[in-house]
Amino acid sequence: MAGIGDDCAVLRLPPGHEALVTTDFTLEGIHFRRDWHPAESVGHRCLTRGLSDIAAMGGEPLAAFLSLALPFNLPQSWVNAFLRGLLTLAGKFGVTLAGGDTAESPNGVLADIVVLGSVPKGKAIRRSGARPGDGIYISGEFGGSAATVQRMMKIKRKLKPRDFPRHFFPEPRLELGRILREKGLASAMIDTSDGLSTDLAHICEESDVGAEVQAEAIPRAGIGRPAHEVDLHFALHGGEDYELLFTAPRGKRIPARLAGLPITQIGHITRRRKIFLRNKKGVGYELLPQGWEHFRQ
After folding, report:
1. Omega before 106 cis (within 30°)?
2. 95 vs 11: CA distance, rounded Å
3. H or E element at residue 145
4. Cβ distance 243 to 251 under 8 Å?
């Protein structure tokens, strides 16, 4: 591999593998605020967005490309801390920063991350494989990131990152994605960057199916010290949890823990193309996607 130093990076895929390529923006005022988010957190979260996409297809990350547009008066110390956060996470997963670009921004920080990964040929886990009768599973807990943002908006000041790690330093679930692919457990998969309701809707749309979800089954995150469990609304619609949502065929045994993470069945796939949320009494209503969507009014 030849990385930074030439006009292009030279990369080689492992034999018998296909390339996975993903790109994500991190925009000041949309994904972070400089007065609320430490620069190291912004860099970490920037790379997490791309790595989480690779994890969602059962892939292995190889290299990242970062393009930054920065205001003229941005302190160099902020840029250094941003890169420190990004490179620390990259080192943890053996990802090379292989190139990118810099430019001046007229207003605010814009970061575009491109991540290249690989997956054995024909083995990528896609969104379109869910079938009626499949169980619906999630890793970890939900709602912690969105509830943290709501708390900052309410008190109008920053919080201590160590007390709210799910928001400031989320972990991409690369090992879990790899295990699900290697063991052939998942029929469809997506990462939960846009919110459980929206990302489940993506799987249902691509697979031409519907779903039933049990509200009480969804593990809700605790935030702060002492920890307080978040409301169901945040767990359903909050986004930026970067957990994995996957389906598995009926009869597949899914362990209660994989890659050190709790795995919870929250429902099952149905034939009709709607998603219903039910309580423990069986009463339910149609669950519409209310997570993050750009350009939605």
Report:
1. no
2. 12
3. helix 144-155
4. no
b or e along 177-194 (b: 16 or more beta carbons within 10 Å of the residue's beta carbon)?
bbbbbeeebbbbbbbbbb
Residue 199 in tokens: 């990302």
**Helices of type H across 238-289:** none
Q: Which domains does the chain have, with CATH numbers?
A: 17-120 (3.30.1330.10), 127-286 (3.90.650.10)
What digits encode the pLDDT tens for the residues 43-85?
999 999 999 999 999 999 999 999 999 999 999 999 999 999 9
Q: What is the pTM of this model?
A: 0.94
Q: Is 250 exposed, middle or buried (0-12, 13-18, 19+ CB in 10 A)?
A: exposed
Distance separating the N- and C-terminal Cα atoms of the chain: 44
The tokens for 200 are 């489940």
Q: Which amino acid makes up residue 91?
A: G
CA-to-CA separations, 295 to 22, 109, 201, 204, 292, in angstroms, rounded = 20, 20, 18, 21, 10
How far apart CA 275 and CA 135 sit, in angstroms, is 14
CB 237 within 8 A of CB 291: yes
AA identity, residue 212: E
